[in-house]
Write a structure and sequence with these properties.
The complex is a heterodimer. By secondary structure, chain A is α+β, with helices and mostly antiparallel strands. Chain A has six helices and eleven strands. In chain A, the strands form three sheets. In chain A, strands 2-1-5-3-4 form a five-stranded mixed beta sheet, sandwiched between helices. In chain A, a hairpin with a 4-residue loop joins strand 9 and strand 10. Chain A is globular. Chain B is α/β, with parallel strands linked by helices. Chain B has four domains: about 100 residues, Glutaredoxin (3-Layer(aba) Sandwich); about 210 residues, NADH-ubiquinone oxidoreductase 51kDa subunit (Rossmann fold, 3-Layer(aba) Sandwich); about 80 residues, Ubiquitin-like (UB roll) (Roll); about 100 residues, Up-down Bundle (de novo design (two linked rop proteins)). Chain B has a five-stranded mixed beta sheet. In chain B, strands 2-1-3-4 form a four-stranded mixed beta sheet, with helices on one face. Chain B has a four-stranded parallel beta sheet with strand order 9-8-7-10, sandwiched between helices. Chain B is globular. The chains are: A alpha+beta, B alpha/beta. At the A-B interface, strand 4 and helix 2 of A face helix 18, helix 19 and helix 20 of B.
Amino acid sequence: MVNLTINGRQIKTEANTTVLEAARANNISIPTLCANEATAPYGACRLCLVEIKTARGRERLVTSCLYNVEEGLTVQTNTDRIRKIRKMLIELLLARCPDSDVIQKLAQEYGVGKSRFVEQSGTNKCILCANCSRTCEEVVGVSAISLSKRGTEREMTTPFGDDFSDVCIGCGSCSFSCPTGAITVEDKKGKRTITFPHNIVEFKLKKCSVCGQYWAPEKQIKYIAKTSGTPLTDYDKCPDCRD
Amino acid sequence: MVKIKSPAELGALKNSIMEKRQAEKPVITICNGTGCQAYGSKSVVAAFENEVKKQNLESKVDLKVIGCPGFCERGTLVVIKPKDIFYQRVLPKDVPEILSETIGKGNIVNRLLFTDRARNEKIVKEGDVPFYKSQMRLILGNNELIDPEKIDDYIAIGGYTALAKALQMTPETIIAEVKKSGLRGRGGAGFPTGNKWESTRNAHGDIKYIICNADEGDPGAFMDRSLVEGNPHSVLEGMIIGAYAIGGHEGYVYVRNEYPLAVKNMRLAIEQAEAYGLLGDNILGSGFSFHLQIRRGGGAFVCGESTALMASLEGKVGEPRAKYIHTSEQGLFGKPSNLNNVETWANVPLIINKGADWYSKIGTAGSKGTKIFALVGNITNTGLVEVPMGTTLRTIVFDIGGGIPKGRKFKAVQTGGPSGGMIPEKLLDLPVDFDELTKAGSMMGSGGMIVMDEKTCMVEMARYYTNFLMGESCGKCVPCREGLRQMKYILDSITEGRGKEGDIELLQDLAATMVDASLCQLGQSASNPVMSSIRYFRDEYEAHIKEHKCPAGVCKIAAAAAK
């Protein structure tokens, strides 16, 4: 066990936990956009920066989602300096995604009015946190989408930017993990449509042999059958109609 | 080739190489690095080869094709040893005359000599050329003595004797020696090399990787390229010594694919060192084994950052990670790793051979040894300059660099590459070392030095570098990617005459967040050009914003200002 102080509170926690995890377990809020408990920490949004002082007296700013707790650590999560940094980061994100209600809410919370920066196209809500592609790779095990290009050209996209992906199973985990709603999933008339920031991919849904409801993309069912080693016929009925 | 099985056999090999060479026989060295080849040095080499045959001079002269000696401005460079006659800007048509006159009759070809414009006199000997005179060419100087394709040339100048010596020392003594020498990483950050080696040696794990960063990406910087091209064995020797000291048996040279000659010469050097038993299993019969491979980079600037480089080595996208867990603990493939820059490795044999006491006498209190700078931009003598740490910018720019051409005035020098800072005239007497440059708002970086004259607009320069970094940022973290994007927008508008009151302050605010919040050093230092130009040339920003004027006359803002 490790003893540390966060915002003046004495905290005891397991070693090998991050400062962010320790704070959250103790109801201390640190804002994040790219942290996702299902995937490895990434450290891209930078909102979770905190000020620390180590037991040896070294003071610095660290990314709390990446920095592990240590004995005698003193953490401050909400100093003027931190708030100032977060404000600027939110202002930058607001310029990037002016239409995102998640970013707007953060802006309100941190007292950011209109961004002083040049606004990007209003329709794209993607902040490039890679929650979607990391979930797809690390949790689903598919890697259907990925970040491509670098610098300001960077975008989240399908292979070759096509409105088609051979490997995507249409599970929608990307949309579920997206913090800003930049990827949407819509099921309609036996078809699932996943709208990525730059591509739209469609999937045929499977009909339940009992109730007639469409319940999952056919490709996803094939993938589950394959990875679990169960016969495809097991999936003729939707979960609700199984015994 | 026969394997060398002991330090004594290495000494014997050296002697046998020397015996075969006649000290009095003239050797013509012709520079043929990448820069020289751009000047057409390959055709000069070919002309020499043909002409030597034609004039039947094979018994009278040897030809040696070397890497970059540094004085790129006057290439193709030809030096005739042992007299050290220095011919510059040599073209194929000059070759017959050099051979018939200088080699045949012992006459000097006057028109090919270097003219010292300050004194208006012709200079015959290489060592008397002002460009070389104020330098201390401990590392780069060897480029002139060897054909990089021939390991025997390197052995002839005492190559691999440091390795032989090191293998008879304990790893701890080697590390203590490197620590005592005060050698700091030449890649830019200036971390003490010995300390890095020690942490990697002490890290837990059986496998430890030794990595050479040859992914030089700064525009205008080419010292690492020239070292790998011109003297690859010095880098190899440093790496093998490092591997032995650290306890690593596998290593990688990560070199960018845009350096084909460097890749070729390094590959050749590895093959030759392996053939001699200086690399591979049971090196020099010591029982120590070290295997080295080359990995070529795809040309991303960010892959020069150590963690991005390792991600790239692993076959992943070259993106940096936070360094809370040190590379010495968990680096390449999660194993303890030691990564040093080309020039750092090349310094190691020197320290082992001459000793830490000797080495630490060169340089300043906090920065020891020499540093190679790539002197480019508005400068009379473009080239590579090696000076002791602590040499002033004035010496480098004026004494060695020959000052500013076209009779113009010096305005600033950008040190440390695109994310370095612009240093103004009033700081010309700054002794150049790691700490002084940082204090001045710039950095050592890998050693690029871009000189700017009075016709340079500092706002436009800041915009240029910001644009470069915007394209080369990996794009992972928000402050670097979005910060650079917005910084570029603001600088665009200022240089186009659309700047507003408050833009300077917004740039400063933005820069402060980029420094504090970026994930890696690229983002943390990306605002240096903007911040240093505001610090030293704020009046130029104000002239653009308030008067819609570009004092240097570079930015075309008349039309926008008229509106």
